[in-house]
Design brief:
It is a single chain. The protein has 5 helices and 14 strands. The protein has 210 residues and is of the alpha+beta class. The protein has one domain: Alpha-Beta Barrel (Multidrug-efflux Transporter 1 Regulator Bmrr, Chain A), CATH 3.20.80.10. Strands 2, 3, 4, 7, 8, 10, 11, 12, 13 and 14 form a 10-stranded antiparallel β-sheet that branches. Strands 1-6 form a two-stranded parallel sheet. Strand 7 and strand 8 form a beta hairpin. The N and C termini lie far apart (35 Å).
Length: 210
Amino acid sequence: MYESQFTEQLGYTVLEASDSGIELREYQPFIVAEIDVEAANSREAATKGFRPLAGYIFGGNKPREKIEMTAPVASLALEGQKISMTAPVATQAREGENISMTAPVTTAQSPGSDAYTVQFAMPSKWTMDTLPMPDDENIRLLEKPAQLRIARTYRGDPAADEIAAAKERLLNHAEREGFTVSGAPIWAGYSSPAVLGPLRKWEVMLPVTR
């Protein structure tokens, strides 16, 4: 309920679905804010990357002239607005543009290293011309092209080895079905910290071509 009511979902079209629950999806172009971090695994990377990216969407940015400042996050919080990510709000929401949260938050590992890229998808109303620039110079704004991905959805609060096993499952599926892997495996988290562990939604995705 939290996910569907309060968070815009990154849209896609399901082209195929296997008996094992793996879907072939088509994603349309979308914009991300992303940052690189070093971590031992996907979950640690997501934790490290989440804070600076949350700081950006909650006001740690420089609005361009086309953006009208309307409702800083700090004032919304004082008026009783429910905000699930609290840590950056007080210090970073006073002068910047507030950008709504979009699910999922994704994490992908750079091949052969401990570097990961953590991404927030930007709400669909924004364009590269209207998005405010991040205060943090380590955050990049990029437009991602249309892409095919195979994906499987899970519920629960996974350990790092469970995420690794899920990624291996997708790699094996891609090989069996004749897909060409076009990018690193992606771990996607959808649920806020308020969602109980067994109910949290997460996915593993793999960019592919045919």
